[in-house]
Design the sequence.
């Protein structure tokens, strides 16, 4: 396979979710994985049976647009849906600039897996294209905890096809694991396009069949797990060739 074409420096203005300390006094630090560092927003984690409260405050000083949070997977009352329905939805569907709202969520037995959350206000198209989305991971008590967990979000931004808001090797995340580790990939898409997640040199089981690619439509997710056995430096990317050539590619390094 030919090397991807190097991109010139290219930036776009982003609008993101961030996790804050109580009272929104200051942002939580950005962890090594990139969580709370921009796109996607901080990962929301829960276990089946948990009641989850998400305290959201709109700090969009640049645009002063209303925003919201809409959560897949959870059960909630209509007031916590986070989707703007004119004359129906209430404040949770369009939180004004400077104001806050608390969403109340419940993780059910059929909530386990990987899911998206995103803005669903009447500015949702502009907000999502600017980066207002994130990941939900809901586990069951019997699920083994992975040694490594990677979030891969496919989306188009600023004329580029991106992974976690970044395009091309050297800018997209480089993930690392060791032989013998249980590795989990949380793969999600947002926007209008279809993608195919692929890792070179690896296979995993899907409904009893070994696969090395996963097709995803808009707002789709896949949870990929395997025990690492293949040392080396490998590509991971979208296998829609035009998307890969436009930035949707990264590196996965495995050490013995």
Sequence:
């Amino acid at each position: 396979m030919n090397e991807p074409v190097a991109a010139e420096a290219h930036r776009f203005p982003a609008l993101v979710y961030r996790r804050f300390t109580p009272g929104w006094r200051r942002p939580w630090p950005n962890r090594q994985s990139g969580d709370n560092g921009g796109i996607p927003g901080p990962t929301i984690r829960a276990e089946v049976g948990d009641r989850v409260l998400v305290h959201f405050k709109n700090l969009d000083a640049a645009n002063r647009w209303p925003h919201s949070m809409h959560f897949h997977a959870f059960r909630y009352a209509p007031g916590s849906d986070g989707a703007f329905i004119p004359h129906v939805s209430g404040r949770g569907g369009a939180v004004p600039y400077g104001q806050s709202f608390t969403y109340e969520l419940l993780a059910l037995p059929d909530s386990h897996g990987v899911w998206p959350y995103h803005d669903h206000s009447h500015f949702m198209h502009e907000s999502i294209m600017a980066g207002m989305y994130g990941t939900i991971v809901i586990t069951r008590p019997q699920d083994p905890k992975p040694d490594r967990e990677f979030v891969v979000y496919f989306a188009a931004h600023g004329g580029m096809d991106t992974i976690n808001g970044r395009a091309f090797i050297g800018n997209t995340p480089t993930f690392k694991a060791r032989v013998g580790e249980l590795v989990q990939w949380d793969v999600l898409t947002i926007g209008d396009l279809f993608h195919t997640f692929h890792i070179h040199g690896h296979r995993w089981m899907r409904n009893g069949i070994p696969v090395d690619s996963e097709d995803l439509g808009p707002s789709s997710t896949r949870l990929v797990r395997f025990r690492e056995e293949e040392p080396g430096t490998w590509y991971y990317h979208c296998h829609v060739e035009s998307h890969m050539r436009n930035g949707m590619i990264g590196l996965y390094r495995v050490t013995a």
About this structure: The radius of gyration is 18 Å. The chain has two domains: 22-139, 148-255. The helical segments are 124-130, 241-245.
